[in-house]
Design a protein that fits this description.
- It is a single chain.
- By secondary structure, the protein is an alpha+beta fold.
- The chain is built from one helix and seven strands.
- The protein has two domains: 30 residues; 83 residues, Immunoglobulins (Immunoglobulin-like).
Amino acid sequence: MKELGEWDDDWQFNRKAKKTRDWIRIVRYGIYGGFAIVAIVVLLVFIPRAGLTVEIFETGETLSTISIKINNNNLQEIHDITLVFDDDYKNKQVFNSIAPFSAIFVTPEKDDLNFKKITVTADNGKLHTIKYR
């Protein structure tokens, strides 16, 4: 047993070995982070656009044309799509179905070219969209 105040001559300073980086772990976390970023971007892009949407394309040239695009941004197929111009339910257009993440283009009849509002319903009224011109 050593007494207080006595020097310890056996003590030596040992330098620790240099710490090496674990590149496999760094790459693995980088890949996980990349998947997380891609998932966040996909959710931020697709969630606000989910559902039934309607777009109107109109050219203002000498021969004006109007085209309407009905989009299905759902994961399931939608059925019984009904397109009505200006609450004229007598002249409605009916379509069978739209596949997931696809669209159909519709050109209005000659009588319906001066419409102000488009009403689109699908799946027996579960999905309903109104678009104003």
